[in-house]
Amino acid sequence: MPVSASDPPLPPDVRQWDGLALRYDSSRPPLPDACIELVCDAAGVRSPSLVVDLGSGTGLSSRPWVGRADRIVGVEPNDELRALAEARGGGHELSYASGDGAATGLPAGEADVVTAVQSLHWMDPEATFAEVDRLLRPGGVFAAVDCDYPPFVDWEIGRAWERLARTARRRLGQRRLLRGRRRLDPSQHAARLSASRRFRGVADLALHERRAGSAAELVALATSQSAVARLLELGDEPVAAGLAELERAALAGAAAHAWSWIFRVRLALK
């Protein structure tokens, strides 16, 4: 639903995706089949009755559950991302709701699976884990999934990507654009889940998926990162130069190799 004048303003880390919905949706990988199979195995179900996807964005992590779950609800606070997800459709069993990881408004104890794909690092962990605990039925599973960026293509591309990322972080600080932004370190998700004492078991796993990709797709992926996108909009010359360097490396190497995507999967059993 649209935000009304009486609604509290969205925090900066939610507003950062404004204007990026199409770029986000077209350049980022969907949740892979192997991840869905792993989560179902962990929850002890072949077809979950309800999957709740926190921070569902444009539906890249919700749509893959269609045909595999009886009901899927994507919960997304950003209106633009959620509107595109709704426009993409997917199936009668898939719906989207406005909300965040700490307050979904969904009934308690009905979910077999709750996921947070490329999104938990933007959430308050304590409040989110409490909401996940409330949503899951006993024996249900929470899956926090993160994809390593960039995919491994070759060494030069990886080095150019990291130089661009470092430049963007530095320029955000120099331009005083970090105020109000909060981002957790995803490598600590499993430790936070264990420390919450809300789950009977926690596992930290990784999955590998190979795909073809092009130089243009790699550059689009880089510009779907909110920091890079915002700095380019501001005409930031160091970030523009870093992106040009990445494009040169991608043109030299991206078409010659398959892309290797690594998905980090942190599972927690209620």
3D architecture notes:
- The chain is of the alpha/beta class.
- It has a domain at 12-152 and 182-212 and 260-269: Rossmann fold.
- The chain has 10 helices and 7 strands.
- A 7-stranded mixed sheet has the order 3-2-1-4-5-7-6.
- Helix 4 links the parallel strand 2 (72-75) and strand 3 (94-97).
- The protein starts with 11 loop residues before the first helix and ends with a strand.
Give structural attributes.
Rossmann fold; alpha/beta; 39% helix; globular; single chain; 7-stranded mixed β-sheet; 270 residues
Mean pLDDT: 90
Main sheet: which strands, in order across? 3-2-1-4-5-7-6
Let me know the largest β-sheet. 7 strands, mixed
Strands, total number: 7
Instruction: List SSEs in N-to-C order.
Output: HHHEEHEEHEHHEHHHE
Q: In the CATH scheme, what's the topology name of the domain at 12-152 and 182-212 and 260-269? A: Rossmann fold
Percent of residues in beta strands?
15-25%
The CATH architecture of the domain at 12-152 and 182-212 and 260-269 comes to 3-Layer(aba) Sandwich
Oligomeric status? single chain
Outline: globular
